[in-house]
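Study this one:
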Amino acid sequence: MSDHYDVIVIGVGGMGSAAAYHLADRGIDTLALERYDIPHGMGSSHGITRIIRRAPSEDPAYLPLVERAYENWRELESETGRDLLHITGGIDAGPPDSTVFTGSRQSCEEHDIDHEILTGDEVNERFPGYGIPENHRAVYQAESGFLVPEQGIIAHVEAARAAGAEIRAREPVEDFTTQSDGDIRVSTSRGTYEADKLVVTAGAWTSEFLPEFEAYAVPVRQALAWFGTSDPDLFAPDNFPVFVHGTEADHYYGFPEHDVPGFKLGKFNHFGNTVDPDEMDRTPNQDDEDLLRSYAENTFPEGAGPTMQLATCLFTNTPDNHFIVDTLPDRSDITVGAGFSGHGYKYASAIGEILASLAISGESDLDIGLFSADRFD
C-alpha cells in the first residue's frame, strides 16, 4: 500500500520549500521530496546571497509579486527567528537607454516607489566601492537588498514541518503516473506515494518530469566569483548597495561582502552554455574567473583582489525570461513552478503561496497571467 497525501511536492529548493510551507500552513496534508540534501548546491537556490528589489526592471507586472514577497519574508523571519532579508539599498545602472535603467525607472514611476536618479559619478561619490562610468545612469532604491537563500530554504522547511508537512531529502523521484481512481502515484528510490494533487518545482530537472517543457525551461550553466577587496569597509553592507549593471553588451550583478570573504558578482547567463543538469561541469575554471575579473577590474577596481571563492549554479530560462507558474493546461491536478530565469529567488516566498493556492483551488489572488504555462503554444 502507498501512503496517501493531499499534495506531493517534487523538489525542495527555493520554490518547493515555500510551496510545502504554504500548503501545510493551510492544513493540507503535504509530502515534499528532494533528490539532494536540504539545502544543496546542485541547482539554483544557493550562493549565500540573492538580490531583492522593490522595483524590478524586468516588467512592472512583477510589482505586486515583489510586494507580497517582502511581506512573506518578514513573516517567515518572525515565525522562525531567522534573519533572511537584509536591506542595503540597490543600484540599477546602465547607459541611459539600457533596459536595466529604463525598466527600473518605469517600475518606480508607475508604482510610486521612492527612488533617486543618479549619474555614474554621483553613484561613485556616494558609494566609493563603485566605479560606474560617468555617462551611465542609475536608479537607487533604498529598500533593495539581499536574501540568504540557504537560510530561506531552511526556514521554509522548518515552518513546513512545524505545520505538519513531511519532508524527505535524498529521495529522488523516478516517475509519476495517474491511477484509475484519479490519484497520482509518485515512485521514488525508496517507495511509492499517492496524492490528489502534484506540485512540480524541480528547477533544471523540470522537463524530466514534464517533457512538454523541454524547450521552455532550459538549463544554463552560471558561474559566480568572490574577490578580495582593498578596503573591506567599502564593500560592507552599510556602504555597498546590491547592484544590477547593464553594460553596452552584458548584464552583471553583485553584492556586498556577507558571511564569507569577498565581493560577490556574476554575469547573467555567463557564457550562455545550455547544459544537462546531471552532466554539467560544476567545477569553475579559469575562463569563468577571467570573465568576472575583467568586469570587476573595470567597474569595481577596489573589489578585484585575490580570488576568495568560485562557484557554479544553474539558471533555468524560458524564451521570454518570465516564469512559468500555473496548472497544466490539460491537467488541473498538476501545478508547475519553473523557468525562473536567474531572477526568481527573491519571489520564492510569494511563489510558494501562489503554487499552494493553485494546487488547492486552481486560482491565485495575485495576477499571474504573465506566467501562464500555455503562452508559448
Notes: The chain has two domains: 3-46+150-215+321-371, 90-142+218-317. The domain at 90-142+218-317 is CATH 3.30.9.10 (D-Amino Acid Oxidase; Chain A, domain 2). The longest strand covers residues 307-317.
